[in-house]
Records
---
Amino acid sequence: MSKNKEESVKKLFTAQSASVDTNLGDSYYTELYAKCQKRLDELKQLKPLNNRMDFLESIEEEGLDRRDFLKWASATTAMLMLPAAFTPLVAEAAVLMNRVPVIWMELQDCAGNSEALLRSDGPQIDEIILDIISLEFHETLQAASGHQAEKQMDEAMEHFHGKYLLFVEGAVPLGMDGQYGTIGAKAETFVDHLKRGAEGAAAVVAVGSCATYGGIPAAAPNPTDAVGVMDIVKGKPLINIPACPANPSNMVGVILHFVLTGSIPELDSLLRPKFAFGYRIHDNCERRAHFDAGEYVEEWGDEGAKNNFCLYKMGCKGPMTFNNCSIVRYNEGVNWPIGVGRGCIGCSEPDFWDKYAYERPMANANIKAPTGGVEKSVDEFGLGLLTAAGIGIGIHAAASYVAGKKEERGES
Amino acid sequence: MSNNEGYKQVKRMTPAMRIIHWVNVLSMIVAVITGLYIAEPYYQTLIAEGAVDKYVMAWNRWGHFMVAIIFDVTSIIVAYLYFFSRFEKSYKKVLPTGANIKEFFEVLLNLVTLNRRKKFDSTHSDSFNTVYFTIFHLLLAWMLLTGLQLYVHGLGSGESSIGAWWPWMLHLVTDWTVPASHAILGGAKATIMDVRIVHHYTMWFILTWVVFHIYYQVWRTIFWKEGDIAIVVGGSKFVKESN
């Protein structure tokens, strides 16, 4: 990254950490309501793209009734930090989701975020919505391959230029001119692929920790020089939805917000939507009382573990991690990491693999050799010691020489 | 005491300075004991009691934050006295003037030659000591700013018992420590964990500072034979008249 000094100093003193304003005042919401209504009316005029399924039919096919849908709509309204009066609008927006084109791009990653929303046991409303969004291109899911797939992407980008949402999953390798990751018949590097996709996007959504900060590919020693989308894409509305994997509820929340308002939700300093990442896990943790009481699991399966004690000493990073998974949980509220009895690894925070996920309290973290690696330490230590010895010998020799001269001259 | 002939008493610390010193000592002991517990709870609570009857981590955090606030206040007073004290304005001793630089190295030479060379006036606080004192207060200020940054994340609602201005102000004053800590540690992006790691490291720097501080004050007392160790209790020491 080439950043000049002035910029980095300015950045340093204007940095902000997370703080959430949940109530923006009546006049703001009245205005927003009118804006959303207008936007939904406009969207209703549009035809669903590519003969997509009808949403209300889809949820019926999955055995859910309208009541479930409305319950979901009010929960989602709350999650998006909107007043309850917005519930009908949110429900309407969900039905209109198939009017917004989405291109999904997969870079250096494990496809875990796609898996997270596809592999659920029984599809819930969040997943159904992601099924029916107008997904114009998704490398992992589509039937097309090779030249066909590329053609499809080119067409989608051209046809929906300036309108589509670009979802990106995975980090961007920059090492070796980006050739650690290439895609398609023309061997386009990931970084070029991303730039091309982002160029015509209405907004870019980085899904998962790899796309957000580089994630696991960027963990020390970061052999491929992986970075997140926000280091590459500039001058576009960009939303980060980190976590490993990103919670489908938050993905839907962001799309819904976009459908509803035509704009991106309020973001924190790391460009994460505040409705999802304005909460500290610790503050909504069901084991918090055990933390304050000083009751900790000391080792896996001990008496404390059986009593659901706090996992802090097992390396839980809930006190430093911002995410709403302690509230919305995963898989439609079934469970979450702390609930299954293991600590939080801080997967929604930058550098989580190096700085959060070492499974012991920070004071005891020694995943890396203290000085950066075994061989590296030994080599540098050896070179340093040899240099010191050399300098010492030099000084001693010089001093002896001077002393010898003095002696010759008869001085003491 | 006839032995006192030839010695004059010099005042070195005012009562306010001495009180601040001992308040800081006690605060630091509490901060380290509770801070180490917060970093890694090193003793266990009795398992048979219900969580409702114990509040061990919470008490540790309470103690840690209380002494932190006391530290904040003494630091503000020290910062004020540093520039405006009527007794001794410390900043005058750290300005890089010729006299100060010379004194600094003379005192350093005095230490490394084990008192075989002593060519400076030891009746007042010397440049070396003042620089050392300044380093401590910079470390402490860094500790307080990073600590308050970590603290404000517990006030996620943006409210506190004394109003919303308090977390707002803490964010305003300490948010820059996140990118600053990241600049020290490196990594892809600045994160709150950088602050926590740096906060922990700084404790060790301060403890190292304390070790040398105590050693050096005792060493001065033994080698200079001017009763330096008494300064922090009685406020004065004794210097040979002929000096």
---
Amino acid sequence: MRSSRFNRRSILRGVLGGATVGMGLPLLDLFLDGNGAALASGAPLPTRFASFFWGLGLTPTRWEPKKVGFDYDIPPQLAFLEGGLNKKTSVFTGFTVGLDGRPSHPHWTGMAAIMTGQCPVKDKSFDRLNSFDTVISDAVGGGTRFRSIEATPFRGATSSYSSRGEDAFKMADDSPLALYTRLFGQGFHDPNSGDWAPDPRVLVKKSVLSTVKEQRDVLWQQTGASDRARLEQYYTSVRELEQKLDAELRQPAPAQACRVPEAPVDLPRKGDVPTVAYNNKHMCELIAMALACNQTNVVNYVFTPATSEMYRPGDTPVYHAHTHEEPIDGKLGYQPISSELADISVGGFGHFLKTLDNIKEGDGTLLDHALVLGYSDTGWAKIHSIDNIPMLLVGGANGRHKGGQHIKVGADPVTRVSLTAQQLAGVPVGSFGTGSMATSKPITEVMA
Amino acid sequence: MSMRALALCGVFAVAPLALAGCASDTSLQANASAAKPGEVVGMRRLTAAQYRQSVADIFGADIKVQGRFEPEVRREGLLAVGAAGAAVSAAGMEQYYAMAASIAEQATAEGRRAKLMPCQPASAKAADDVCATQTLQKYGRLLYRRPLLPNELAARVKLAHAVSTQSGDFYAGLREGFTSLLTAPDFLFRIERAGSGRPVDGAMPVDAYARASRLSYMLWNTTPDDQLLRAAETGDLLTPAGLQAQIDRLTASPRLEEGVEAFFDDMLQLELFDHQSKDPAHFPKYSQVVATQAREQTLRTVVDLLVRRNGDYRDIFTSRDTFMTRGLAMVYKVPYASKADWAPYTFPAGSGRSGLLTQISFLSLFSHPARSSPTKRGVALNEIFLCEVTPAPPGDVDFSQVNGDAATVKKTVRLRLEAHATDETCASCHSMVDPPGLALERFDSLGEYREFENGERIDVKAEMDGQIFEGAAGLGMLLHENPRAPACLVRNLFASGAGRPAVGPDKPTAQALAKTFTEGGYRLPAFLKQLAANPALYTARLAPAPALPGATTKVAARSPSSLKETGR
């Protein structure tokens, strides 16, 4: 324990200038307005955004609805939509990636095109572009402890697919316990508890960061153009940490749906299906509560990396190897093991959605106040196809998203879905993408 | 002299010794087109190993560094090159801050103060600016790898004063001063500045402090010690004799082994052990302990052969000498008679083991979780030991012809891979990468020896560079005689030290160094001394300025308040 003579009284007197801090506040619906769609203060419930990626696409013939428009049929691989989620989901088929003469990097280009609007020249790179979730984060991520949270239930996949440029990908928590500690460990305060007081250590941390920032201008002047972007990214990260501290110094507003979760137990690091499913279950719960408890408004989740090495216990090849090596079953017309693993992957997405939808918040559920993009890297992994990559938008987006539709197009760029996601999440964005993927046409059919 | 250069030289001059290399007007103008002295010409994020070792050397080996480091980026085959383009994300900053606070807490703990403090505060219960200045100046110099600028020091002293006063604890203030230094970009990145010397082959020379850092991290993988920093401060390090004296000192130290270990840990991609997963259903002998020992086994083997015994580098492909633990012996299926944790061991002739390529590290890291992969091993071998990068597979490949249907599945990997020959596009690369991998097929995904796969005897004959060979021993001999292997090592050593690949204008330097290595009989310690004395190692090439980063999103309207909100 650090020794310190700070106490709440001295903080309130000396630092907060005597500002009064309310204690013992009542909870729940009292703080929502009569319609349940806004906080009693008049501020609307925030729109949360999540990107959910799973590797290796889905099985052609098993995931595309046959009927276009409303009341589409639910294909076998989207079985998790049964029971009402289909009404909150837009399924997009027929979209494609325009290479514009650039190489198609297997298991990378498709995902990068969706997230940045451009096919990168280099593999494992975004050509220094931001991913669009950061634009959403800039628009809706303020006021929470974390501008965004990145996580993966696949241990070892610690690089997310979210980047603020410079090909630096945000670090993802890959263990449930690490994610819990980050979200609900030191610095977290239950918004519904009545004994809030600012932690004096937070003020000291802010002072430390201030000294770090003092040198910024001098260093900036001395730094050449080639390194400035990275320097700026460093200071952006400092600012995000400051934002976290600022949030910790504010008394959190009560959050109706927030229930502080228990700390999960980590399993030994393995990439088999049961371990990934265990991690996914706990991480989905943690993330749902992170959203409900207003710790963040933006999440980037990687169920498995693009070249998924998830495996069935005792099976020799991993998922990725199966997609390339497994023969197509003559009777079924598809690769049965690969398809089973695709079911499991997209089933993980289904679990994420159901976890959000099971949390009541205001006039609906947490999912009704969120927008979730589910997407992958390939259309048909067996041949590295980047046509018809599965993309789904789920959630009400606070009434902006008109779900329950199957949108089928003839080779429109995937960026139309990315642009639509940004607009539904509340970003005042007009266009997205470059070259043949530049678009200013969102999919208006799904916009209320 | 420009105002900026004057300012830089001026502020450094208040440090105990004047900044080396403050230049005259003439030299500044000579380099004006590239970078002015004092300008930042490189930012290399500390690797996890460098961070840990630097902290251990500055504050004590018993300081625990707890936390997660940002994922490291491998570029041009090396994390050391990737570090020159690595950034710090928000989650990474949280971790760095937490680690800094924990280190500072431990460093200022009561039991350590006698060793830590260069002075005694007037009172342990109050601020003492004089003692705080002295302490922060001493450790700031080691952490920043240069003297602190007056305003950098003043900011920390002010912070320490405020915290000490408010808390009534001198050491609480000092602790926060340390936390601030440990969180600063000047510690997390090796910030390299241009010096004032003449360009070398068109590259800008770095200043004396960057020179000290390159030398120290290359040879010891840690922050420059007091002697090295003093040589930088006096300018001695910029003279051939002064540089040579430091090279002699550093290479004569047993700590050279740490530098060599760190380099090979990077080159051999051993950090992959951090995320390795093996299916226990197939490999019950595999555990985290075995993984950790396998990594150490390889590093012990390399250091013993190349440093302690001053052996021929090429013997890493053929030597059967290594070190063993009880756990590793189970995987290798060899007896372990020693009572010690580690014991030297030599595989018998005819065991099939030959050099690093037949150790668990290489064999298991470049395999699938439950199955060997000649292609993965071949790609890794070409990249790591021959500096030859295999192009990514084409985007649209139909594997149907390769795999056939369920009734005609090929029993061995060789049979499946040979089917690639039916596709010209695939064959062009697979013919290069598969043969060495196929020669190693008698070792499974963990590195255990086997002779059969699915009931079929494994054929380990292969052909590479027009030569037919058999098995791991044949492959080892072939690589031993391949001149591209030592040339590749030299390229990697240069790249690791300079922080940039030895390509383009640096290629002639690498070629000349490779010749030196060959003439010296492929002995690493002697070559490291020659490399460290080469002026090209202490230069920087400015990368072209990148296009402004940003998403391809065009925001229709953004209010000033939203800009303020994002803080961008």
---
Amino acid sequence: MAITLTEGAATHVKKFLAKRGKGAGLRFGVRTSGCSGLAYKLEFVDLPGEDDLRFESHGVTVFVDPKSLEYIDGTELDFVREGLNEGFKFNNPRVKDQCGCGESFNV
Amino acid sequence: MALMQIAEPGMSTDPHRHRLAIGIDLGTTNSLVATVRNGIAVVINDEQGRALLPSVVRYRPEEEPHVGYAAQRAQSEDPYNTIVSVKRLMGRGLHDLADAGSLPYAFVDAPGMVQLKTACGIKSPVEVSAEILKRLRERAEHALGGEMVGAVITVPAYFDDAQRQATKDAAKLAGLNVLRLLNEPTAAAVAYGLDNAAEGIYAVYDLGGGTFDISILRLSQGIFEVLATNGDAALGGDDFDHRIYCWILEQSSLAPLSAHDTRLLLTKAREAKETLTEYPEVRITAVLSTGEMVDLLLTAQVFDALTASLVGKTLGPTRKALRDAGLTADQVKGVVMVGGATRMPQIQRTVAQFFKQEPLNNLDPDKVVALGAAIQANVLAGNRVADDWLLLDVIPLSLGIETMGGLVERIVPRNSTLPTARAQDFTTFKDGQTAMSFHVVQGERELVADCRSLAKFELRGIPPMAAGAARIRVTLQVDADGLLSVSAREQSTGVEASVAVKPSYGLTDDDITRMLKDSYVHAKEDVHARALREAQVEGKRLVEATQAALAEDGEALLSAAERADIARGLSALAAALEGSDLTALKRAVETLNGLTVEFASRRMDASVRKALAGHRIEDVEC
């Protein structure tokens, strides 16, 4: 299994990193918080952690800490536009149930 | 599911707790809203993909007002109810508006701020601006998909206190939490400074719809410092439209126009100006309500000639700002162009000539202010590591408190960075004094009379104590918006009094320059004046103390000869107090002090005897 980005998502991440001027890639992970147990975390990476797992997808490096991977392995990150809003969406095969907005979830 | 954005390392927020913040450029002609997404500042477009919202509000009877393009289209049909360039009316009374007669509105003179009669009743400029802000807020909420923490709203550097307050009121009315008001040129520098990260001196040349601002900024190690600002609060792109409009009238020799036709021709004039940015000539055609036809050809050369004086008017403030900063044009490393009007080729040319370099315009001059505001809002909302960069605004002149003798005790020195808070302890001057009055002043001179008075307030309820025993802590605090609050607190009882003032906005930059220069020119006299005043205060205190002591114990403790000596010393000192001879005054003080040494020690003995009378020795042992 792995973490993957859709081509569209990768294009956007590359653009954001270029504009930001620095960063090794994208950190994708989970934190224990939120209304339904776990919450996604999506950040730029300046200093990768030693234990980080790395996934290459369409030219973008995704950093995942090993603990997080248990909850998100197999997830595909997509970048979508909904009306005026735009942002990342996660297709996580391990999610059993999630809160109404999907920002926090259970496996 | 909700759409997620990429956060800075370690700055992820909890679900449903995203710190969404926006920056708003509330412009004279157009307004914009921007935000930071995935680490990048972006302008939020409307459903049709348009970034600009024309700052135009049209009031319609019994209906929601139109804002933006819909209102702009109605300008010529419904000029009385279609409010354009309302920013020029913000915080202004009718007497402040030199050109009120040429505006097509039904003005109502109200205390403080002018009001407008519309189809929806009387509206203040604050309400009109709130309609624009409300529309931008809705656009942002729609696009961000959540509650907002707040907004940074930009204002021209020249806005005075009343105009800034009016802008804040409008935001409140529109349901926005104002994180900070930010000067427009500073916002532009934020946008450029971050994207290009270049150090040095920069000039921000901002020719908007209704205002011209020139700012000299220093960018070093990621820190912005405003060195000087200047400008013209009544010069902008609208004036260029007006020149074309006058030219049309002149060329077509038209009869006096109706409000509708005035608006129509002004719209045509603006379109012609915009066309001339890209083309060497433009055809202006219009049919007036009287049936008269306008059909003219305007060339870029004619337009240049018509507006040469307007372009020239921007250079005066530019020179002044440079002079205030102590710099010359060739020390400026880059010139940032802001405002749609800077797209005009004659402006680009003139600025390039003046600074002997091509101005920077790699960001859209219409958007750069909003982008900077969004970046600032993002920091204030807590989405970035704070030490990443700081935005420094400074106090232009020192703030202080009047002390005895009309002297200024400076508490916050000039060029302190905002926000700041400083405290100093003061004490009472007379025995049993229970109240103290505080006079807050701004300026660099030693005497209160030469500084600008900001506020006065009183602290009452000080417990009666000997002179000099009370400890009153005075705290001056200036927040990031330049709002000064002063509080005085008696330390033993905690009684407190305070006052809020806004120091910098009431002063024009010319005032500030003049006050600064005065302080250098008069430095020597001021030192003398301070020494004299201090000696006078000391002398008066001595006279009062001696007289009080004489009245109490003079008969009992002094011989007639001694009393006469002291009386002579007193009158000599009183005479010296009248004059301005510092040495004579000091000598008189010393003489009287010498004459009263013996008296003072006898009084001390007497009071000790009085205190001990009737007590056994064990009672007073500690």
